[in-house]
Amino acid sequence: MTSSTTAPAPTWEAPLAGAPLDATVEVPGSKSLTNRLLVLAALADGPGTLRGALRSRDADLMIRALRTMGTRIDEGDHASTLHVTPGPVTGGTEVDTGLAGTVMRFLPPFAALADGPVRFDGDPAARVRPMLPVLAALRALGITVHDPSAGDPTALPTHLPFTVEGRGSVPGGAVDVDASESSQFVSGLLLAAARFERGLTLRHIGATLPSLPHIEMTVATLRDVGVVVDDSRDGMWDVSPGPITARDVRVEPDLSNAAPFLASALVAGGTVRVSGWPTLTTQPGAMVPELLERMGGSYTLNDGVLSVTGTGAVHGIDVDLHAGGELAPTFAALAALADSPSRLRGIAHLRGHETDRLAALAREITRLGGQAEETRDGLVITPRPLRGDVVRTYDDHRMATSAALLGLRVPDVRVENVGTTAKTLPDFTGMWLSMLGSAA
Ligand SMILES: O=C(O)C1=C[C@@H](OP(=O)(O)O)[C@@H](O)[C@H](O)C1
Ligand SMILES: C=C(OP(=O)(O)O)C(=O)O
């Protein structure tokens, strides 16, 4: 008898926490900072260096894309040290965005500076992520953006794939953008704007603006390299034309990637520490300690070491995560393990993330026997006794890490395609196991 059944995808058995935790975790560099600093280094007035940079799929896609557009990037003694030598931005090339929002949204404005066409494409899952606002802004600035392989090659593409026809310079000026689906539309335009002849006056015209800390991160990284940015009016940014100063910078650890590790202390009890925690940061992960405290943990920050301690009790929360949507999968998993209902609000834009995260979280929590419902702009999660099953991850690194968090308490959670964590954290399973290995 022949069978056309394909073998089930291998799954990773999420380990149960056998005892309270006592672990210190070293989290690699921030994805958001690494990919901003790489873009700015590639546009700078001389060679610069990133230290403690993230090396993961998203960062490596950014490195490859910048190299293909004329930037030289060499590894130093350590893979996380990157020496960046800018060159003229070259076209006649292709950029693979993978599933990286930072690559697909930050690089089209950069490619507008190229001396020829730059074709963008990515993973199948990337082809449904929103792109129109940034492409419409480029077109309004006089840049041709089109898909030569489309039925109407002059139409403005709404999604990947597309081609940006660089002409060697961008006049710049004033433009509107609707960034209600992603702050990355604003960040991408601002990052290249100092190299536009007249700079850029950008106005957000949408009803809501998610991920403000990430826009503040863009403005702060621009100011750090000498770019003049006026953000004194709400929803408006004015970037003056001028040089971008080459620098030698250290990248902060990724606080959003620290979140599932710190949250483990609440689920398993005990203490989890993350070293290198900045006292001042624009990362939305800065919200994590206070949110964990509201859910039953306690924390201290001493000499750059953040320690979160839990008792195993997790309380429900009503929280607006508009400013830090990328934290939602971690908090949804915690909510499913809590002793009272939770509401996560302000995160409608998660429907355009790596996957439709609201649908994916509701579906997977329900699959384990939990109760999770989508609302217009978030999730309502009512704790129920959970049972093990395969958790689908939909190419989403944060679906995988949140499934691991559930697996600390729910026996027999098997995580489909845990390798998807390589998007931002290539050694996730090793780090997770060593956190548990040091259980008291
Ligand atoms: O600019 C950035 O580095 C990011 C901005 C946010 O995007 P959205 O505003 O699309 O949520 C965030 O979720 C993403 O992980 C990283
Ligand atoms: C939304 C995320 O990623 P991206 O940068 O691909 O948008 C994320 O990391 O949670």
Summarize the structure in words.
The protein has a four-stranded mixed beta sheet with strand order 2-15-17-16, covered by helices on one side. A four-stranded mixed beta sheet has the order 4-5-3-14, with helices on one face. The radius of gyration is 22 Å and the shape is globular. The longest helix has 14 residues, at 255-268. Helix 4 packs parallel to helix 5 and helix 9 (328-336) runs parallel beside helix 11. The chain has helices at residues 31-42, 57-68, 101-111, 132-140, 184-193, 212-224, 255-268, 288-294, 328-336, 357-367, 397-407, 428-437; strands spanning 11-13, 21-25, 48-51, 72-75, 82-85, 93-96, 117-121, 144-146, 162-165, 173-177, 200-204, 229-230, 236-239, 248-250, 270-274, 298-302, 305-310, 318-320, 342-345, 371-375, 378-382, 390-391, 414-416. It has two domains: 11-28 and 253-437, Alpha-beta prism (UDP-n-acetylglucosamine1-carboxyvinyl-transferase, Chain); 31-239, UDP-n-acetylglucosamine1-carboxyvinyl-transferase, Chain. It is an alpha/beta fold and 440 residues long. Shikimate-3-phosphate is lined by residues 32, 101-102, 182-184, 187, 210-211, 214, 325-326, 349.
Put the structure in a nutshell.
The protein is an alpha/beta fold. The chain has 12 helices and 23 strands. The strands form 6 sheets. It has a 4-stranded mixed sheet with strand order 2-15-17-16, with helices on one face. Strands 4-5-3-14 form a 4-stranded mixed sheet, covered by helices on one side.
